[in-house]
């Protein structure tokens, strides 16, 4: 049996797949935060290049990947599909577990799949500088790498708790030439305001997005990039599922269950969306999106229009949300600490095509350690959520073994401090933060 299923460079998909036109019931449009009316590309062009806005609004099912992007993708793509035979053995299951290893990218995660095209379309339109936020540091590293390929300056607002927990992510971003600041910072109005009120805040993606946006709005030479949530990011990530589909076919298999961890939803939708047309044609397949129990937007949130950031500067997105001013506990899967979920994943949950699952931090680290001991690769804390769900599915009914495909969104080699805290018993599970949630839910915009 073949353990690694590999594609040649010339077998890499040359188009991304856009799931939007295939979503039953469609997507609700983003709304202008001031007028509460549907928002067109004109206003958004202050912070995004038109090339990306065209993708954001596109109803085309397939979109060509530019040649320059394919050339950079070739550094690590096509990524391997691996059968986790050793994990299967350790679990005593006859289920087949496949994982798509996105940890092989230069920065160690799937985030590079969108960072490269985002930097490319900015470069095409003459943008000299890009600002962004980063939670775990993976997106910040990915954008730093991508901007360095196209000669663009990059400034990263890094969520305070990750800034403190992950010093080597900062070193990586420095290596690629980016500028990094802990968020909330004293460099923006919103940062200063939050620091004055909550000097010890761990920060959040919602705050860091506000800072990066404020910076981009304030300068003509600067645009902004978001590492998840938006339609164009999910479009770029579809390359994961498109490759995986080919590779599963080469292995002579087809998944019964497709699993991914969910922060803003991009790696999960990236692997899952190319299988959705088959589902709509009647193929039996389950899609499981896994989130932390401490930041449960899909399982405990509300489907409503909400802001993507704390300062209420983003367009209103129709998504599962915990409220834009919800500050999640400082769990070690920093990339999953976001109050909202992508409108695409939200609509697919609404349509009951995607099943949400929530898991606690400690069981995820346990799963990550088992994965490391069996398959050898140490997963990022975010990825541990997908590993945990794959184990749950593989052992759910030993008399009915399934074929499971999960996205291995990133390795954890720069997250070892979190593993050390897990070993020393310093990590804890956070219960569903009912009180904080009720407070932030009360602040949802009235539409
Ligand atoms: C390794 C890894 N996996 C998953 C995520 C979650 O993001 P998304 O839901 O957009 O894939 C992150 C975010 O930083 C990440 O670093």
Short recap of the structure:
With 447 residues, the chain is of the alpha/beta class. It is built from 19 helices and 15 strands.
CATH architecture of the domain at 66-108 and 238-441: 3-Layer(aba) Sandwich
How can the largest sheet be summarized? Answer: 7 strands, mixed
**The CATH topology of the domain at 66-108 and 238-441:** Rossmann fold
Q: Strand content of the residues, in percent?
A: 15-25%
- Average pLDDT figure: 96
Could you say which structural class the secondary elements and strand pairing correspond to? alpha/beta
How many strand elements? 15
Termini separation (Å)? 55 Å
CATH class of the domain at 66-108 and 238-441: Alpha Beta
Extract low-pLDDT stretches: none
Number of H- or I-type helical stretches: 19
Q: Based on the structure, what is the oligomeric state of the protein chains?
A: single chain
Short descriptors:
447 residues; alpha/beta; Rossmann fold; 7-stranded mixed beta sheet; 4-stranded parallel beta sheet; 40% helix; 17% strand; binds pyridoxal-5'-phosphate
Tell me what the structure shows.
By secondary structure, this protein is of the alpha/beta class. The protein has a domain at 66-108 and 238-441: 3-Layer(aba) Sandwich (Rossmann fold). 40% of the residues lie in helices and 17% in strands. The protein has 19 helices and 15 strands. Strands 1-4-5-15-10-11-14 form a seven-stranded mixed sheet, sandwiched between helices. It has a four-stranded parallel sheet with strand order 8-7-6-9, sandwiched between helices. The longest helix is centred in the middle third of the chain and has 20 residues, at 231-250. The model has no long low-confidence stretch (mean pLDDT 96). Residues 109, 135-136, 138-139, 228, 261-267, 335-336, 380, 382-383, 409-410 line the site of pyridoxal-5'-phosphate.
